[in-house]
Amino acid sequence: MESVRVVERRPVQTELDRQTICDFGQQWQAFQSNEGYYASQKLFDDILGPLLSPESLRALTTRLPHWALAALSSALQLLLWFYILACKVLPLPMRGYMLGVLGKLSAKNRALIIYDQLNPAYAKYYRGDEVRRLLEEGGFVNVRLYHRHGYSWTALADKPC
Question: Is 7 inside a domain boundary?
Fold first, then answer.
């Protein structure tokens, strides 16, 4: 009887892969809770879109050390907090969203959302139809999608045996 040795071939890890893993490790150590509503590109656009484009800001923030990005995220969260407070008394743009979604989050969670959006060197955000197509092309059936505010998709699907 012959013995067969199975060798798994791992994809070559690029510098971008290593940096992404390192960045996430630092992020998770600083922000370990993830309660309630979380983040998406749309949320980032809603928060800073009129002031900064995600691309121009990310070009800078992906080069910052963890401590500097954490400090920047906290400062931006403070500006956002003042805007949320102003929304309580003034009919400002996105008032409902600020009070009904972002205003319900703790300052630490708002800073986490900002940090998470500024940190990745690479980010890909899928539309609902793309999520469904990817799962179905992967052999999944009974695909069910859920979103909050039309983005940040959660998918449940079955993989036939």
Answer: no
- Radius of gyration, alpha carbons of the chain: 20
User: What gap in Å lies between CA 137 and CA 82, rounded to an integer?
Assistant: 45
Q: Provide the 3-class DSSP secondary structure of residue 137.
A: helix
Note whether 155 and 145 are within 8 A (CB): yes
Is 60 contained in some domain? yes
pLDDT at 12 over 90: no
With respect to residue 110, please indicate whether it lies within any of the assigned structural domains. Answer: yes
3-state secondary structure of 102: helix
DSSP assignment of 2-27 equals: ------PPPPPPPHHHHHHHHHHHHH
pTM over 0.90: no
Q: Which domain holds residue 112?
A: 15-25+36-118
Q: Which residues of 22-40 are buried (b: 16+ CB within 10 A; e: fewer)?
A: ebeebbeebbeeeeeeebb
- What would the pLDDT profile of 37-91 be if each residue is shown by its tens digit? 444 566 666 666 666 676 777 788 888 999 999 999 999 999 999 999 999 998 8
Residue 88: C-alpha distances to residues 50, 96, 99, 110 (Å): 20, 10, 7, 17
Q: At what angle do helices 41-48 and 107-118 cross, to 10 degrees?
A: 110
Q: What is the mean pLDDT of residues 114-138?
A: 84
